[in-house]
Amino acid sequence: MTIKDIAEKAGCAISTVSRALNDHPDVSEETKQKIRAIVDECGFIPNSNARQLKALQRKSICILVKGSANLFFEGIIERMQAQITLEGYAAEVHYLDEAENEVRFAQRLVREQKPAGLIFMGGNRAYFEENFSAIHTPAVLVSSLFPDFHYDNLSQVGVDDCAAGAEVCHYLLDRGHRELSLIGGALDASYVSQRRFSGFQDAYQKATGQALAADCYQTASFNAASGYQAMLNLLKARPDITAVFCLSDLIALGAMRAAHEKHRRIPEDLSVIGFDGIPLTHYFIPRLVSLRQPQREMAGHSVSLLLRQIEHADKGAQLILPTDMTQGESVRSR
Question: Distance (Å, rounded) from C-alpha 191 to C-alpha 131?
């Protein structure tokens, strides 16, 4: 009996079972009780049990997730867990606050649990620069690419965020928009936000010969509630905008709600474009246009690269994956 079998019996994702067994607060009490009943019935012993821990330490892979409400990461993590399990390893997921130092957390895991490998779902460049040299366990960084950052034990898999920002800018400019704004993570803390904004800003200046307005960028956390508040602030500061680039789809969800409450019709009055291409965007009203990151490929390549490092002592590699624009109803030509 494995965690995958438990998930199938419970009718939920592997990651949900993992969080339930670790008593994670984002799993409902009803779901926890259902999973515990199946565990008791089948005699399954969770990986955290001390009798199993010693045997599994060298066969475990720890996944460190920045933020607990990231639906884009959720799709990747589920695929990773399934692949890791099929390869004979145990996947252990740890959810961190967006502001937490993931590298120091990893140092503690390596010291206490000695996992075979580490997967970082998102990362702060400053934390890696400060502390990653002390980690010698094979690792892979997913979705945050540091192009000039090289360690033999670190692979990187993701998209070119700078080029992606430029692609979104050209998409909006080609449809006649000139008064543009963005909502994304704090530029002094979120490296992917820095890169996407930089690419967008450079593309705008090259295409128009003008700089973006100084107040064009609103800071938000990568969730709908924060996107909602950021859009309210943006519409107050820049009532003339015709298009907004949200640096995640969940930010866009909140932003679209705020626009609706302020009587700004999408896309008639205001165009909105997201980033990630999560399946949920198909059910937004209107359906969200989004620059999609390839979840399936990101998960598969990340685990494969990590296993080659673990089992064949391969050096870390960097893999840049393509993006594509999803079809939707939230952008209108002017």
Answer: 17
* Per-residue pLDDT tens digits for 144-201: 899 888 999 999 999 999 999 999 999 999 999 999 999 999 998 888 999 999 999 9
Assess contact for 291 and 167: CB atoms under 8 A.
yes
pTM, two decimals, is 0.79
CATH (one of 3.20.20.80, 3.40.50.150, 3.90.180.10, 3.40.50.2300) for 161-292: 3.40.50.2300
238 contacts 181 by C-beta, under 8 angstroms: yes
Cβ neighbours of residue 171 under 8 Å, at least 6 residues apart? 273, 325, 331
Phi, psi dihedral angles at 305 (to 5 degrees): -65, -40
**DSSP code per residue over 169-226:** HHHHHTTT--SEEEEES-TTT-HHHHHHHHHHHHHHHHHHSSPPPTT-EEE--SSHHH
Q: Which residues contact 3 (CB under 8 A, 6 or more apart)?
A: 14, 17, 18, 21, 44, 47, 81, 85
Q: Do 145 and 156 meet the contact criterion of CB atoms below 8 Å apart?
A: yes
For the chain, where do the domains classified as CATH 3.40.50.2300 start and end?
3-160+294-322, 161-292
Domain 3-160+294-322 classification at class level: alpha beta
Q: What is the pLDDT of residue 43?
A: 67
Secondary structure letter of residue 309 according to DSSP:
H
For residues 119 and 306, is the Cβ–Cβ distance under 8 A? yes
